[in-house]
Amino acid sequence: MSNILVTGGAGFIGAHICEALVRAGLRPVIYDNLTNSSSAVIERLERLAGLRPLFIHADIRDARQLDTAFAHTTFAAVIHLAALKAVGDSVAQPLQYYDVNVAGTLALLAAMRRANVRTLVFSSSATVYGEAATVPIREDFPRRPANPYGRTKVAAEDILTDLAHAEPGWRIALLRYFNPIGAHESGLIGEDPRGVPGNLLPYIAQVAVGNRNELNVFGTDYPTRDGTGVRDYIHVMDLAEGHVAALEHLATTGRFIAANLGTGYGLSVLEVVHAFERASNRHIPLRFVARRQGDVAECYADPAFANRLLGWKAERDIDRMCADAWRWQSLNPLGRSEELTKGIPNF
Ligand code: NAD
Ligand code: WQD
User: Fold this and answer.
1) What is the 3-class SS of 129-190, one letter each residue?
2) What whole-number percentage of the chain has pLDDT above 70?
């Protein structure tokens, strides 16, 4: 069974990737400093996948700890998710974002090179495209990120692109995620943001469960079907399975790719709210407010390249995304504040 190092593996997307890796017959090893996650995820993954992932509590900027990790285990590949991801924080603390997301990536690459591990799947983001001139967005569209977070992703993509050209031994996949939502269908792992959620789905889920009073709908005057912003929401399990497909591609023919992971269709804020109301059988009170600064009207992927090259396609629809997010939220109403220990269902 091959080992895969998953940096940021205790986080929202990383935990789901670990579950998908085990299902694919691979052994995830989580490397995470828990700045935005909880080690309770390890036990949950063990219950879910029947395999307790090895957990290394360490920082990706720490060369010594990286070397120790690579010395103890032979890795077939690395999936690099560890990063800071809050757009607003990145405006307020750009140095911290460049340090973790760019310097952290450099430290990881240097350690991989020392250990002679040269296969990497990197978590990039649709945010690299900024305000695209047209939708759907293809991989060859210009990258024009609108905030420091997006610029850290572009910087890391550029480093990886240059590395792949300079040293042909590397096999690298840049995966640009659109809007990952939902949770594993067990309700054991899911998204658990700190403080007030910045993203739409966790906010809706917290309103539905009664932790917040109403959802602020940011902008009703966009040139879209109903005036609210349109995004490409993708089930986190589809996204996770896209990583397994990318690893398989790199293990066979792939050398360097940049691929969109999205469904290819956009949904408005109101369409998502209504889907969540159906899934939860709860009413979501709304307050219509001004546009949020920096938001674009419409953003959705052309996923044809990933569909063709990786033999992968997002399959789960918005009703499934909301049903799974609701199961996770209602089984874990307080999230990390109760250390994810209560309400664990038998699965
Ligand atoms: P997350 O915050 O849940 O997961 C990131 C993990 O990285 C956390 O567990 C955190 O503790 C860890 N981490 C942060 N800094 C670290 C460091 N210095 N050393 C070691 N570990 C560190 O976020 P997520 O939503 O799971 O995102 C995972 C990746 O996907 C990130 O790279 C993010 O930029 C990217 N991404 C996320 C989205 C999204 O909407 N969630 C969209 C596109 C791309
Ligand atoms: C979705 C829609 C909002 C909250 C962000 C990052 C991006 C990527 C994914 C990491 C928009 C509206 C939201 C709310 C609302 N992350 N909304 N009320 O902005 O598409 O992307 O997360 O790479 O980089 O920018 O996602 O979930 O914040 O917003 O009306 O309380 O919901 O205006 O139309 P976004 P989001």
Assistant:
1) HCCCCCCCECCCCCCCCCCHHHHHHHHHHHHHHHHHHHCCCCEEEEEEECEEECCCCCCCCC
2) 97
Query: DSSP label at 99?
Result: I
Here the tokens at position 292 are: 């949020």
Whether the pLDDT of residue 26 is over 60: the answer is: yes
Candidates 148, 192, 153; CA nearest to 11 is: 192
Pocket test for ligand 1, best of 5, 6, 7, 12 (most atoms within 8 A of CB): 12
Q: For residue 126, what are the CA distances in angstroms to 59, 257, 308?
A: 25, 15, 19
Residues 6+ apart with CB under 8 A from 184: 15, 16, 19, 48, 190, 236, 237, 324, 328
**CA separation for the pair 164, 160 (Å, rounded):** 6
**Active-site residue flag, 97:** no
What's the chain's length in residues?
347
Going by pLDDT thresholds of 50, 70 and 90, the confidence category of residue 19 is very high
Which pLDDT does position 347 carry in this prediction? 34
Q: Please, which pLDDT band fits residue 337 given cuts at 50, 70 and 90?
A: low
Closest Cα to atom 17 of ligand 2: 200
Does the CB atom of residue 11 touch ligand 1 within 6 A?
yes
